[in-house]
Amino acid sequence: MAGLHAVGSRRSKLMFAGSVYLGLIGMTAVFLFPLLWVIGLSLKTRLQVFAMPPLFVWQPTLENYAAVLGQADFLQAFVNSLVVSSGAVLLSLCVGVPAAYAFARFPFRGGSFLFFSLLVMRMLPPIAVLVPMYILFSKLGLTTTRFSVVLAYSTFSLPLVVWIMRGFFEDLPRELEESAWVDGASRAAAFRHVVLPLIRPGLVAASILCLQLAWNDFLFSAVLTNNATRTLPVLMAGFSGGDTGTDWGGMTASGVLVILPVLIFSFAAQRHLVAGLSSGAVKG
Amino acid sequence: MGGSTTAVRQAELRALGAAGFRTSSAQRWLDHQFARLAVLPTSAMMLLIFGIPLAFSFYLSFEGWSPEQSLFAGKFAGTANYEDLLTDPQFLASLSVTCIYTAITVATELALGLAIALLLDVDLPLIGLFRTILVVPMMITPIVAALCWKLLLDPDHGVVNYWIGSHIVWLGRPDTALISVMVVNLWQNAPYVAVLLLAGLRSLPSEPVEAAAIDGASAWQVFWHVTLPLLRPYILVALLLRTIFEFRAFDNIYVMTSGGPANATMSLSMFTYLASFVKFDLSLGAAASWMMLVMCLLLCLFFIAVLRRREAL
Question: Residue A35 and which of A88, A182, A283, B19 are 20 to 30 A apart at CA?
């Protein structure tokens, strides 16, 4: 009886594992198919793209990628995206990290109000901020500059930086800085020489998230930039003028090139995020 | 390793201190004000790029203003902009479209996300691989994701129509257009919900589940009466975040339908965008955006109140 029971439970365990795998494979197929299909389209010639029934097996070609990378428009937008994203990351880190440290270590009057308004900032719909921002920036002559977009992105990544970094600072034992203070270091020196080197994983995590935010945004860049300063998503949106047109190869190849950096960064960061969150270096 | 780094740092500092850190009164003042100084740039930025523009758009929403005028040259219009909006059938339609869109998208995202999270929570070989692969859609630039789906759903050459063997103009009919723009966000954000809920599932204590199983509860009973209630705080957070982010839906709609056909996908963000940057009626746009702000704020407060009460219990 007991033996039978054990066999039955082993079989049911196998059945369970099998059905979980089946579910996972099904989910993966559904969620990955759109992306794989589009990558496939980017490797087809114009004739193959529009073949009916669709081709599932073909000789891949890189001609679409060669064409896209030969376009000055695309390269300009790529550079703009890079400049704007890294600018936004730098600005929000420089501004947000000291604030996060203060929030974590030195409770001060008005602190929780400030922290709460930062969270609200993150929650508000971007379009609502964009309307007045556009007016004020254009009166200041900032519109169509890349700097205007950097400023816009920083407002949205700043709350993120403060939120993440505060967590990292709170996890750091207070004794580290206190011993530095006792030794005569100022608050700023202790922060720079003791605290900052220990929270590098947090900095990496925060910058990746800000980078994603800036790289993927469309709305701000669409309104605040012109043809010379536009970022990649704005260039991509140009492909969707009413009809999808006939250059599916060029469109999908550019699309793949747009998402590739984010994917690479995020997978590189996944390790850092985990390393950062379970950082043994901090707890000694 | 970490310990030795710390030790080195401390030694370094001691050396620095010996080299002449002096606690002058100026430095003591700086130390005393450290927190204030550290949050100064953040406060300044919030005020300049967030506070002042929002205050200005509040002012603007009560004015009749056109872009050729100088900033404060508009004419006071009272609540005319708001009255215009509330009597504009297009705005009212976009309000209901946004609510329907948000409710359905968030509900399906949560259901699908929970299903994925439960599958990913089982400890089996290769599960790490699935955890990595399944989050890929959420990292894709939303504009590119929407373009992908536009190609998949193309009436003549799209692979979806080929598979179902019919000729549906997905983005050309009001009902299917709304479903299509929902699907894009569902595709991108169900994995995001799954990541949030998986973190929750991993942090749950195992004892209640084991106890219930020993008491003879079926797998479904364990899930419904034990796991789900324990997971509730995480589900609420996912609900809050997704509702706020779907409420502002714009990118997918802009690329796929631009609000059409017949305003069937006109979200509030799309309406505000068109009013402000296509018709260039910026005072009307300011009024519309303030209505969005207030709705969003109310949503936040509601969810925060719910979360607080859960914590207190």
Answer: A88
Q: Could you list the pLDDT tens digit for every one of the 284 residues in chain A?
A: 333 344 457 888 888 888 889 999 999 999 999 999 999 999 988 878 887 777 777 878 888 898 888 888 899 999 999 999 999 999 999 999 999 998 888 888 888 888 888 888 888 899 999 999 999 998 888 888 899 999 999 988 998 899 888 888 888 888 888 888 888 788 888 888 888 888 888 888 888 888 888 999 999 999 999 888 899 999 988 877 655 566 888 889 999 999 998 888 878 777 665 544 433 323 22
Q: Are A168 and A202 in contact (CB under 8 A)?
A: yes
Indicate the residue of B122, B273, B296 with minimum beta-carbon distance to A124.
B296
CB hemisphere CA count around B289 (13 angstroms)? 31
How far, in Å, are A49, A60, B121, B158 from residue A46 at the CA level?
5, 12, 43, 14
Chain B positions touching A108 (Cβ under 8 A) are 35-36, 39
Residue type at position A7: V
Question: Domain residue spans in chain A?
Answer: 2-42, 65-283
| Category of B78 on φ-ψ map: left (φ > 0), alpha (ψ -120 to 50) or beta | left
Looking at domain A65-283, its CATH superfamily turns out to be MetI-like (1.10.3720.10)
Give how far Cα B156 sits from Cα of A35, A41, A244, Å. Answer: 20, 15, 11
Angle at A162 between CA A155 and CA A184, to 5 degrees: 130
* Measured CA distances, A178 to A109, A195, B2 (Å): 22, 11, 18
Mutate which: B24, B25, B34, vs A, most A CBs within 10 A:
B34
Is the bond preceding A53 in cis, omega lying within 30 degrees of 0? yes
Choose from B50, B61, B135 for mutation: most chain A CBs within 10 A.
Answer: B50
Contact B195, B132 (CB under 8 A): no
Task: Count Cα atoms within 13 angstroms, Cβ side, for B21.
Answer: 20
Is this model's pTM higher than 0.90 or not? no
The ipTM of this complex is 0.86
CB contact under 8 A, B148 and A94: no
Answer yes or no: do B293 and A125 touch at CB < 8 A. yes
**Domains in chain B: ranges and CATH:** 88-312 (1.10.3720.10)
Contact A233 B34 (CB under 8 A): no
